[in-house]
Each structure stands twice: as C-alpha cells, then as structure tokens.
Amino acid sequence: MAFKNPAQDTAHPYRAIWKLSWPQVLMMFFQFWIGFADVYVAGLINREVQASLGLITTCLFFLLIVATAVANGAVAAVSQSVGAGLYRRGRRYVGLCLLLALGMGTLLMLLGLAGREAFLVALRVPVELRAITGDFLFVYALLLPAYHVLVIANAVFRARKEVIFPTLSILLVCVVNAVADFGLGLGLWGLPAMGHAGLAWATFWSVTAGAALNLAMLWRKGLLRREAFAPLRWVRRALPRLLRVAGPSGLMQVLWQSGYLVLFAITGSLPHGNITALAGMTAGARIEALLFLPGFAFNMTASVLVGHYLGAGQPAEAKRFGFRVLGIGVAAVGLVTIGLWQVAGDVARVMSDDPAVRLEIMSYLYWNLLAIPFTLTGMILGGALGGAGATFYTMVVFGATVWGVRLPLAWLLGHHILGEARGVWISMLVSQMVQALVLLYVFAFKDWKRFALVRRPSRRDPAGLAEEPGPLPVGGNGGLRK
Q1: Residue 471: is it exposed, middle or buried by C-beta count within 10 angstroms (0-12/13-18/19+)?
Q2: CB burial of residue 226 (10 Å; 0-12, 13-18, 19+)
Q3: From CA 431, how far away is CA 405, in angstroms rounded?
Q4: What Å distances lie between residue 258 and 125, 261, 265, CA to CA?
Q5: Considering the entire predicted model, what is its pTM?
Q6: pLDDT of residue 469
Q7: Residues contacting 87, CB < 8 A, separation 6+
Q8: What is the pLDDT of residue 346?
Q9: Are residues 89 and 466 in contact, defined by beta-carbon separation less than 8 angstroms?
C-alpha cells in the first residue's frame, strides 16, 4: 500500500484527526460491550461467577501488560518509520513485534498453566470461589498467545493509519463473544449450557477469531512475508530501541494499576461508611468509564499522528497535531460530560437501590466529572508522548502523581482530615490536575523529540536500521534525503 506524505494532511488537519478518531471511538464502544456481555451473563448465572469473573479479569490485565507495552513500542516504531518513508524498516518492526507477542504470550501461558494453584493462593481467592476462578485461569492462560497477537496487530494497523482493520477485528470479537456468552453460558440456541466455563471459552474463541482475522489481514498486506522478519544483526540493533519505549510503558502500567488497587484498599478501610464507599466507587467508575472510551480513541489518534510527523522530520507539526487532538478531545468529551451530569441522578438510581450508595455514587461523580478535562489532558498527551517514543516521561509523571500525590492525599483526607470517602474522591481530582499540568509542561517545553526511533539513512548504518530503497519525502525540519 502506498502511503501519503504526512505533510499532505496539514492542509486539512481536523479532517485527518477525524478520519483516525471515529473508527477508534467505535472500536472502544465495541470493547465496552464485550465486558458488559461478560458481566451481565455472569450475573444471570450466579454471584459467585460474577465475583470470580471480576477478579480474573483484573488479573488478565496484568498478564497483558507486556503486550500493551510492546504495542506502544510498535506504534512509535512503525508510525515513525512510515512517516519517514522507511517502509521496509516499518515492515521489519511489524515482524519483530509479532515475534515478541508470540514469544511472550507463549511463555506467560506456560507459566500460568504450571503455577495456576500457586497463583490462586497468592491472590487469596476465597475457598468458595477457587474452583470457578481456577477454571477461568486455565482457559485464560491458553488464550494469552492469541490475545498478545490481537493487541500487537491492532497497534500495527493503527500505526499505519489503517484504523478500520482493528475496528473490524474488535467487532468480530464483540459479536462472537456475545453469541458464545449467551449460547455456552446459558445454553441458548441449542448450544450446551456450560455455565462459567462457557463464559471462559467464549472469551477464548472470540479473541482467537479476532487474532486470526488480524493475521489474515496482515498476510494480505504483505506484512507476514519473509522480508518482514529481519536478520539477527538487525534485530540486535532494533530490539533495544523498541524496549526503550516498551519498558517504561510497561512499568507505568504496573505503577498505575497497583496504585488503583491500593486506592481500593484505602477506600475499603475508611473509618466511616467504607462498604458504601466501595459500592459507590465501583458503580461510579463504571459510569465514568463511558467518558474514557472516546478519550482512549483520542489518545491513540495523538500517538499515531505525532509518530508520523516526527518520522517525517517535522517535529513542529507533530507538536501542533498533539495540541489539536488535545483541543478536540477535551471539547468533545467535555460536552458529553455536561450531558452526563444532567442525568447522573437517574443513572445512579439504575445502578443501585440503596439510597446511601446512590448518594456516594453522586459524590464520586461530582469530583471525578470535574476532573475529566484534566484526565483527558493526561490521556491524550500521554498518547502523543508515546507516539514520539518518550514513554519515560509518562512513566515518571503518572507514577509520581499516583504514588506521590493521589495515594498519600487519599489516606490523609479520607482517614484523618475528613474521615470519609469524599477525601478519596478529592485526592483523585487533585492528582489528575497535577498530572495534566505537568504533562502539559513536558509536551510544551521539554525535548521529547530526542526519544524518536527514526533517524536519517546513513552509509554508517551497517545493520540497516534506516535501510529503505527508493525516495524519501522531502520537507519539514531540514528534509529527508535518499
């Protein structure tokens, strides 16, 4: 496929942003319904299945941290290579990332199968949930290689601006998962009623179908041919560059998710109304998640565009596109937030029959909807820095604001000054404000361009990292030559 010079999008920058954003918003919508179907059908079976599903889904995220980290590296490496016109190099990064996905997914699968019992003990799974959770863990461990391929392939297509392909693969996952959830979980449509095992296998077959579709599309695009898998000397030079992006990204995910678990613990140990607070937090977070869906789409759009323009040798335009996506994202989601607030009371009544829990949901939403502009700023600028390969900055900022601001402030306000959940919600708002302002400063004034993975072709590049036959686009900051 022939790619346009990224500079051609500058004539219609908002059209370029829209073309990348709307399929990804749709993709996040499908992601939401995948999780909703799982939880809904689990609730129809029994509360033990629903509880086990929630626990194992959280664990699955940790098992996918490597895939998420490599995906961020893939977006930076492939988008910058395509932006620079180094298409062979981009194909080689595709092959390298897919091999990493298969290798790490298989390794984690084997570890999960071998250490399943030890894992359940370490998680302190209640005895009455252990058999169900063990069944989920067995199937999810088998799923890991396919899930890694799904995540990495979706990132590769986004990096190439072919965002319709990951949207189609997630649509397939959504449809297969919903049919299998109801069919295998509840025994509808003549399928065997397998209960909780049916839900686990629904996830397995749906993700496997999505991964298979992605591999078929990669083959059709010529990205699985022999030339996509580089010789060892190239890999030895390219792999450290890829890990320079993936490493901080993975560590950031660990810091963020572990911080969220600690925040749950702080809320659960409040001196007053801790159970009500946990219920309000869980329900409020589900409502708030609706606003994160377009936020993640703009995060991915910023990552791709910044990577393409940085690869094209146009760092100033990369920065301008980052700010453009930020403005559109905050404005669009801000309008949705205002609309959500108008019906927040009605939504709270749907989420809980308990008047005390409803009040706590409203309290959670009050402080966290105020934080949405700051949350979106952090998400979108984090994506922009990721596209530049500057994940070190996002790791430091996200880690410092969670562990240095949010958690200490939540403990101080929630346990000592206010003595109630409102202190925890306030700490979330303050930490998001600090995070947004620091990232805004970094993106505006720091030299994040130095983390770029692409450099100009040179005869001194014996490993061929910049090797690409044919002309490169000319223009931007000094231009690129043959």
Answers
A1: exposed
A2: exposed
A3: 6
A4: 18, 5, 11
A5: 0.78
A6: 36
A7: 3, 81, 468
A8: 83
A9: yes
Dist CA 185 CA 206 (whole Å): 14
The per-residue pLDDT for range 351-373, each reduced to its tens digit, is 667 788 788 888 888 898 999 99
In which residue are the tokens 């397998």 written? 194
Q: Which whole-number Å values give the CA distances from 111 to 120, 136, 344, 380, in the listed order?
A: 13, 15, 44, 35
Residues 334, 294 contacting (CB under 8 angstroms): no
Q: In this structure, what token pair is assigned to residue 161? A: 């601006």
Q: Residue 325 is encoded by which pair of tokens?
A: 């996506």
Please state the length of the chain: 482
> How many Cβ atoms sit within 10 Å of the Cβ of residue 220?
10
